[in-house]
């Protein structure tokens, strides 16, 4: 494996650890804050931070030809995923959301094919499909007969589709712009729109919410929505959308480990067995060839 790909995988892993705490932090924030405020407000706060970074670094305005992909990125990672995931966490535990979201690496690879021109090998696709089927089987067993899980799964499906497209579009841009500029400009472009929606809805702000709810919100805004993407998109730029996206299968197990510690959720034997299975599939899949276009 080349040095750039190895560095990309390390950066992707750092981002995945940060992303893995997103659903638990969302559940914590929901103990006192409106879901729309959490889902959209985090992008507004992160947008302010991004604006400061761009101003301090005197970054040049992105070329017009990048605007389309920047808006696609923003639609997926700043609008779609945060809102859908927050709505889903009203109905299901973080651990359930974690296993459903484990399908993301496959859809991210599809996005890489459609938007970034990557061509994963057959072996890579076999590993991706195998990991996804294992995740889906687990999800069906976990949520059988529970209407709340079904409602959550609809929202999670929206989160998965939108963020996979956003990952691929952002990963493509990062090869030319740099990961930190991609997320910063996506946030700056979308923050006024998010704020306008919140104002138009008359979204309430519970200033008396518990401290832990506000800490959860700040984590989502400054870590999940901002810092983690610096590492994520730079990792994709170095290692490729499909290959680094595959690392996200591990996000499930970061969340499964955090859910009992932060939320008191029970970790079952089935979850442990599933974790071992998917980690093994990822270990095989990361060694499969992924052809990338030259810049």
Mean pLDDT: 85
Secondary structure category: mainly alpha
Number of strands: 2
Helix content: over 70%
SSE order, one letter for each helix or strand: HHHHHHEHHHHHHHE
Kindly give the count of domains.
Answer: 1
- As laid out across the biggest beta sheet, the strand order is 1-2
Number of helices: 13
Poorly predicted parts: none
What percentage of amino acids are in beta strands?
Answer: under 5%
Please outline the major beta sheet: 2 strands, antiparallel
Shape: globular
Rg for CA atoms: 18 Å
The separation of the N and C termini measures 19 Å
In words, what does this structure look like?
The chain has 295 residues and is mainly alpha-helical. The protein has one domain. The chain contains 13 helices and two strands. It has helices at residues 3-20, 22-29, 35-56, 67-88, 94-101, 104-115, 122-143, 147-177, 179-201, 211-239, 241-246, 251-263, 269-285; strands at 119-120, 290-291. Strands 1-2 form a two-stranded antiparallel ribbon. Helix 5 crosses helix 8 (147-177). It starts with a helix and ends with a strand. The mean pLDDT is 85.
Question: How are the SSEs ordered, and which strands pair?
Answer:
Layout: H1 3-20, H2 22-29, H3 35-56, H4 67-88, H5 94-101, H6 104-115, E1 119-120, H7 122-143, H8 147-177, H9 179-201, H10 211-239, H11 241-246, H12 251-263, H13 269-285, E2 290-291
Antiparallel strand pairs: 1-2
Helix pairs in contact: 1-10, 1-12, 2-10, 2-12, 3-4, 3-9, 3-10, 4-8, 4-9, 5-8, 5-12, 6-8, 7-13, 8-9, 8-10, 9-10
């Amino acid at each position: 494996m080349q040095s750039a790909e190895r560095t990309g995988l390390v950066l992707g892993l750092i981002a995945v650890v940060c992303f893995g705490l997103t659903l638990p932090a969302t559940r914590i924030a929901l103990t006192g804050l409106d879901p729309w405020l959490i889902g959209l407000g985090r992008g507004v706060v992160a947008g302010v931070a991004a604006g400061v970074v761009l101003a301090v670094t005197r970054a040049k305005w992105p070329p017009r030809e990048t605007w389309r992909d920047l808006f696609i990125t923003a639609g997926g990672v700043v609008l779609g995923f945060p809102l859908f995931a927050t709505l889903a966490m009203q109905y299901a535990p973080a651990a359930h959301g974690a296993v459903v979201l484990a399908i993301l690496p496959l859809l991210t690879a599809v996005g890489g094919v459609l938007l970034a021109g990557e061509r994963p090998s057959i072996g890579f696709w076999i590993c991706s499909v195998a990991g996804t089927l294992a995740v889906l089987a687990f999800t069906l067993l976990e949520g059988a007969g529970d209407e709340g899980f079904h409602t959550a799964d609809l929202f999670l499906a929206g989160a998965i589709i939108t963020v996979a497209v956003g990952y691929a579009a952002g990963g493509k841009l990062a090869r030319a712009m740099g990961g930190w500029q991609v997320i910063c400009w996506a946030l700056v472009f979308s923050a006024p729109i998010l704020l306008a929606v919140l104002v138009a809805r008359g979204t309430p702000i519970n200033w008396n919410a518990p401290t832990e709810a506000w800490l959860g919100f700040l984590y989502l805004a400054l870590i999940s929505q901002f810092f983690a993407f610096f590492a994520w998109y730079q990792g994709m730029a170095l290692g490729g959308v499909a290959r680094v996206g595959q690392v996200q299968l591990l996000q499930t197990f970061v969340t499964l480990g955090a859910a009992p510690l932060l939320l008191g959720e029970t970790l079952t034997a089935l979850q442990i067995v599933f974790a071992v299975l998917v980690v093994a599939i990822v270990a095989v899949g990361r060694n499969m060839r992924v052809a990338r276009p030259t810049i």
